[in-house]
């Protein structure tokens, strides 16, 4: 339960809570007199004491999988209009980790903006600093601890004429390390887990009384379906759209099921509304987002609740029984790609087990679904894959790779790999090296294993590969990946690539950058080109334009080329 003077549990939350009452902090006194400040705190505490009851929460709780448009909500009784108007505090949001955290940042900001907060991109202007955190690896958490110590120094320099600076930790690290964050280091005022962003206004209201506040409850149905994320970069050409949250796979190394909870999918109708809105705003590429995105299963429509479960990829298995009913990922992908024929559709991160033929066929046939798949392997050793509880062997994975390439000619592949997992021998490592060479990925994400508390590996296995061995093996994997990716990307030299222009290159103002269909970065000179209408007019490429670029050189991460002309998705597809 989130700790507050009320002791009320917020709505729509089920799961574990922070049981202890958090020790109040000493409240700072701003420019108003101390007596006036104390009276203000007493008045605010009185409002909290007379705040929402259990009946209030029951009355305002939305049913699971709500599909209706968002309605205007009544203000919470403990957040009166005078309090909100007086506050108008500026919030600074800083994001760490994966794309899900980028989307979470947009959701958190949408909720705070509705409650009267202002956004600042200048740290020094902030009254509230919120870090959206990652807990997948120890290195990510250490970066947060270091940042918190820097922010604490900033907090101590706050002028007494200013309102106290409030610091909050959101996301996965908040759920995993709430006790340590709040009590051991005492660097933070509020803690909110991934399913508690709706509670941010209340938590910050409690923090204003000088107390720490936390809500890390995991939900069985929270998808923020009725919260329209506010894009952090309004002029961006691409956007993320969350379609599901949580994960049920329970891989032995992974903390995600413990920090983000069980799988639950957002109603398809709300997803399509958001995609349509982004299209109307001029966004040219949408990435459908989820921890296990292709296991999407919308059960909000009664007539589809008895639908049969799609089969798994050949040779793959799960630790749970097949889930019957619901609209599946293939249907969502089909409908999302129909919203705007000139908008690219991507999705991440999938699990290799959930690639039925209908999904592969749709990717092949639909011109605006990118011919790029992320197929996380994690290891090339069947023995290690079993220890990881991945549900497949090396042979089954390679069979899937071949089937994907047969089904989608020219597909671009990316993958994840872990070096030095529990019990990994040199032979296991060399099998991963050989898999990298055999598949020849275009893009790779490679990391040394970092054991996480709560995971099955933490309780059942030994982290017995020395750190220096992990580093050596990781370096070898990275070296082999780069070598093979350079060869894979080199096959595009001399060919034209359809590129979505993102903006100026970071390294040169005379160059532009964008990404091709395979999600590979493409760099090209910012020169005049044909406008694509056949009129002979020349223009310069702008962010959001589709252009044809002839590739002249390739590395493991980047293609370089010369600009040919502006085009469209449909025109480009017609000339393939």
UniProtKB/TrEMBL annotation:
One of its GO terms (biological process) is regulation of protein metabolic process. Residues 233-487 form the Radical SAM core domain. One of its GO terms (cellular component) is mitochondrion. Keywords: 4Fe-4S, Iron, Iron-sulfur, Metal-binding, S-adenosyl-L-methionine. Its cofactor is [4Fe-4S] cluster. Residues 89-209 form the MTTase N-terminal domain. Signal peptide: none annotated. One of its GO terms (molecular function) is metal ion binding. Pfam families: Radical_SAM, TRAM, UPF0004. It comes from the Eukaryota. Residues 490-565 form the TRAM domain. Belongs to the methylthiotransferase family. MiaB subfamily. This is CDK5 regulatory subunit associated protein 1. It comes from Chrysemys picta bellii (Western painted turtle).
